[in-house]
Amino acid sequence: MNNAEKTLIHTSHLHPLQLVTSPEPKPICHACNMQCTDRCFGCLKCRYYLHITCATIKKRLDHPSHPAHTLLFELTPTYDSGKFGCNACGDEGSTFCLRCRECNYDLHLHCAALPHKVNHHSHNHPLSLVYENPNPHSNGTPYAYCELCKATVDVSKWFYRCNTCNFGGHVACFAPNTVEALSPGLQAPAPPPSPIPPQPQAASQVGNVTNEELQMQLIAAQAKAAQSMMVANAMHNAGNTFRYSFDNVQYTTRWM
Ligand SMILES: [Zn+2]
Ligand SMILES: [Zn+2]
Ligand SMILES: [Zn+2]
Ligand SMILES: [Zn+2]
Ligand SMILES: [Zn+2]
Ligand SMILES: [Zn+2]
Prior knowledge:
Structural class: alpha+beta
Number of strands: 16
Helix content: 10-25%
Bound molecules: zinc ion
Shape: globular
Number of helices: 6
């Protein structure tokens, strides 16, 4: 990977972000308020950091949990409170979200990025992510216990389930390291030496580019990010193996 490929211009920050090894203690991702993993995108000067997943998620997302409308990326919640309630996990968010304005449907980026299917060593079949209570007659009472932690499952939130066996449970139990799994930094193999000679870096040019040039770079970076997320999404469902293509480097991450 050459230096140009490690730079990302993101709408949320004035300066280009570099793909870096996370400093210690690991910083908090500005998008999701969760701790960054081994590598992240960051502006070292401003101490502004984003998970790789959070920095590169699609800005328009058609998600099966909300088939009626396309979800759009928002930098800040548009509610007066400055917060949104995530329709996936029920928790509040105060920074980036994917949102349907028409329906007030909001998702954390990391919730939107949850794999639609997971393989777990505790079960023979793949588990599917369930977005809606499959048993509406239960009147909202928890109908199921999590097979891993044995606590009740609040079916108003997303959960994982094997439809054949009615086996399943919490997202946090069955996909505990999703954000980590989605960030290729943790277990990424060393990228192969790039055959392409290093290109001029966006970062080093920023000091003397015009606004228009910066705008063009921004659009190009966004298009590129959207493209790599599309590749990532297309490769999402390979069981417990997550393949992630980022800037033409392919990463493979497995979880148990
Ligand atoms: Zn994040
Ligand atoms: Zn900065
Ligand atoms: Zn959420
Ligand atoms: Zn909608
Ligand atoms: Zn559980
Ligand atoms: Zn099963």
